[in-house]
Amino acid sequence: MGKITVVRRVVQVAMLVLFCLPPLLAGWGLAGLFAGGDGEVATPAEGVLFGSLSSSSVAGITLLDPLATLEAMAASRSLLTASVLVGALLVVLVYGLVRGRAFCAWVCPVNLIGEGVDAVRRRVGIAVPERTVDRRAKIAVAAAVVAASALVGFPVFEAVSPIGAVNKGLAFGGFAGAGTLVAIVIAELLVSRRVWCRALCPLGGVFQVLGRVGQVNVAIDHDACIHCDKCAEACLADPAILTPVLAGEDTIVRAGDCMACGACVDACPAAALRFRLGRPRGASRGKADSAPVAACPSSR
To answer: What residue ranges are annotated as transmembrane (predicted)?
Structure first.
């Protein structure tokens, strides 16, 4: 496991723990179980952090999942309050500036489970197709979710979200999306590699659109690249997003699907890949437009 992946794994677990701390510190239990006695206990919402990945409060600042916000607006068929819209826009701004699908790689618990399923499948030798559904399909799924929310009058995805099944389930006992999560595990184990995260997750579709302007990008040193394809084998999003840089047509991975997970950087035996800040206007082979943010050590 490479250095970036180790750091990312720590962050993924830390995010799970972070949302579980407020109820524990208030004397509550996990998964909706009450751990206190008959005496009065504090409300977890009184702390610095409270909530879930769908809706949370950090030091009094509301942060909202942008897809859930769109669903809520569609379901109510009206604009939400200014504070709600600002809460969603803050999330959009942060992930938009960094790299939209960084949420998927560094925060989302379903991706953590998906990587575990990937490892199990490799260990037991189960072969599945690399791709069965186009990665752009999740944008259409996101649009369909919002439309369905308007049709039925409630946030459709929030009712079956596997993200909520893990995040809300551990903290509050809300396991509404557990069935979806089980289906995802079975599909990724037996049907297709990372089919949910790559092609079907509507929240991933929203962040894919945001990812097209992200400022943290994987860059390539064409002179160092030995064309071993280990980066493509390691890619968590879709190896196709690496094609332009590996073909020498560009110096950074531009696809909004890139998760900035660092798996390709860790896998490169020639240190040809690195994270860099900024997006050059067009393909500029061989130019180093800014200093690297991180790189894997060369093994040559």
So the answer is: 79-98, 139-157, 169-191
